[in-house]
Amino acid sequence: MRQTILIILSLATTVALASSSENPTEIIRLSIRQTEANWLAAPNYSFIRITSKSKPGHPPAIATHQVLMIEGSPYQKLIAEDGQPLSPAAAKEEEQKLQKEIYRRSKESPHERAQRMRKYTEERARDHNLLTAVSEAFDYTFADGSQSPSGGVWVLEGRTKPGYIPPNRDAKVLSNMNMKIWIDKASYQWIRLEAEVTQPVTLYGLAKVSPGTRFTLEQEPVSATVWLPKHFTMQVNATALGLIHEDFTEDELYSKYTAAAGSIASSNAGEVFREPATAR
Q: In this predicted structure, what is the pLDDT of residue 235?
């Protein structure tokens, strides 16, 4: 679910360098081109992801992974837990797992590789299909004061169109959601997005996402033309099967994007969790 939400937010916000118009609807429509460029470039990068998961009354569980693209799909190597580097023995074990996986993938038969890639490519294809859904789901307007000629950022507010019918079950979360988007005028890339569920939404017939569920996504440039996530927070208020109530927060920090060409090199196992800075 996390990856789908992250892609939904990403597809909702980036803007192409194709128009000088300051019509918010046109800006969002043109955003598809730039979004696709970022989406297509994402598999070319390895990165560090620090994930913190917490529930009310419980300390957070924190894990740091180096996410590597190996033979066309990602591999997650654990490099720290609960803010501390792995012990030498644990770090050695994780490195051995990585090297074993690199070797295994390099020796795959065409059938084995197709099986491994199928799930990854299906997930990406599903996320890509959300492009059209996102462009059609919302009415966008400028937030007060965001059209000032002296400012470097557009701020758009999006609300679900009346009568919007999601084209598939993945897009259902868009049917009762408000968004606020910060877009850099110089590059037409998004800076920050905040989204909030406004009415209960049932996903996959199992989980009901309740009002108060919030998502925040921030991105940064990783090359001259590509922007990718640097911070994602998901605060969820949900009920599963009508019986189990779940309140939890998941916070992710992304860093050290590296072009994933050539040989795989391990990152510094001393990379540990740092509390994210307070959002502006």
A: 84
How does DSSP classify residue 195? Answer: E
Give residue 97's pLDDT: 97
Query: ∠ CA(132), CA(128), CA(25), 5° rounding?
Result: 30
Sort residue 221 into left (φ over 0), alpha (ψ -120 to 50) or beta. beta
CA distances 115 to 108, 119, 124, 129, 152, Å, are 10, 8, 15, 22, 46
pLDDT by residue (tens digit) across 208-255? 667 778 889 899 999 999 999 999 998 887 655 445 556 788 999 999
CA distances from 177 to 16, 40, 102, 163, 209 (A): 23, 26, 41, 13, 11
| Percentage of the chain modeled with pLDDT above 90 | 32
Q: What are the angstrom distances between the C-alpha of 274 and each of 4, 69, 90?
A: 25, 24, 21
CA distance 257 to 223: 9
Residue 25 has pLDDT above 70, yes or no: yes
The ranges assigned to domains in the chain are: 2-259
Lookup: tokens for 110: 């065409």
